[in-house]
Amino acid sequence: MFNSISNQASRLINLTKNRQRESKTKLLTITSGKGGVGKSTFTGNIAYLLSSRGFKVAIVDADIGLANMQVLFDMKPRYTLFDYIEGKVTIDEVLLQTAYKNISLVAGKSGYQYSNHSNSFVFARIVEDIISLNEFDVVLVDTGAGLNEYVKEFLAISDNILAVTTTDPSALTDLYALIKMLSKDKEQLMLCFNHTKNHQIGNTISNSLINLAKKNRLNDNFMVKYIGNVSTSANISTTGRLRKLFSFEFKNDDSTKELQAIIDTLLKNIK
Ligand SMILES: Nc1ncnc2c1ncn2[C@@H]1O[C@H](COP(=O)(O)OP(=O)(O)OP(=O)(O)O)[C@@H](O)[C@H]1O
């Protein structure tokens, strides 16, 4: 899977795994094959719901397509992930306190030219550095959509990967490409559906993907674990537009309850 990443990045993968064993901080990487499926909305709201359960959370916005997290948290970041990677600021300076208690954000930057810098820097190093602080309970990494080398870097260092998808055929095709890649050297992928009417639909589609993986003889030891769905909700799109978190504004909304159920399962599965 990661043949193409540098030796430097491979060393980082091992180092990050050791750090995770030593630190209280759990790493969860949230990804999607296709763009626009709700990955950033999930990341921001999972962060809030975890913080409301008493966890201290850091979010790393590793999306260089559209760095949405600062919009969702209504922030104008002074520094971004890339200022840290380029050595301009310290880890404390790049971890920005959000308006929500116990949530810090490392902001991303839209349109960063990864390929111009990919030989000089290992971007995922920031995750290892946050884990080493031993200050947060959870680090959530929001990767960009797709499977480019930059996204692969952040997937490579994580044993806890959550994919967000819709039931749209193109989203499912991209998801299967992700499953195929991860099955080579990961143990599991957690999967949740956005914009689906009920839990059963997600379950049925997950089972079809698992059967397809079996038919295509993907690694038997790799598990796809369906952990829940969120329905389409006007409250989600409205709060997103207003730069607010739906789970904070609408604590008793069905979609908040659906996301709470996802977090219950997530916490049981996270390593
Ligand atoms: N369940 C939902 N119901 C209604 N609107 C939603 C839902 N989930 C997400 N949205 C809206 O869909 C839009 C896209 O969501 P979001 O930005 O989270 O997607 P993304 O996968 O992170 O996109 P990108 O690939 O651009 O980073 C946003 O306007 C968001 O408010």
How is the topology of this model organized?
Blueprint: H1 7-22, E1 26-31, H2 39-52, E2 57-62, H3 69-72, H4 81-85, H5 91-94, E3 96-97, E4 103-106, H6 114-117, H7 125-133, E5 138-143, H8 149-156, E6 161-165, H9 169-182, E7 188-194, H10 199-215, E8 223-230, H11 234-241, H12 246-249, H13 254-269
Helix pairs in contact: 1-7
| Distinct small-molecule ligands in the complex | adenosine-5'-triphosphate
What's the pLDDT, averaged over the residues? 92
CATH architecture: 3-Layer(aba) Sandwich
**CATH homologous superfamily placement:** P-loop containing nucleotide triphosphate hydrolases
Low-confidence stretches: none
The share of residues in helices is: 40-55%
CATH class: Alpha Beta
Number of domains: 1
Shape: globular
Q: Please count the beta strands (DSSP E, at least 2 residues each).
A: 8
The multimeric state of the shown protein is single chain
Would you write up a description of this structure?
With 271 residues, this protein is α/β, with parallel strands linked by helices. The protein has a single domain (7-269), classed as P-loop containing nucleotide triphosphate hydrolases (Rossmann fold, 3-Layer(aba) Sandwich). Helix content is 45%, strand content 16%. The protein has an eight-stranded mixed beta sheet with strand order 3-4-2-5-1-6-7-8, sandwiched between helices. Helix 1 (7-22) packs parallel to helix 7 (125-133). The protein is globular. The protein starts with 6 loop residues before the first helix and ends with a helix. Residues 32, 35-41, 63, 66, 68, 145, 194-195, 230, 232-233, 236-237, 240 line the site of adenosine-5'-triphosphate (ATP). This is ATP-binding protein. One of its GO terms (biological process) is negative regulation of cell division. Pfam families: AAA_31.
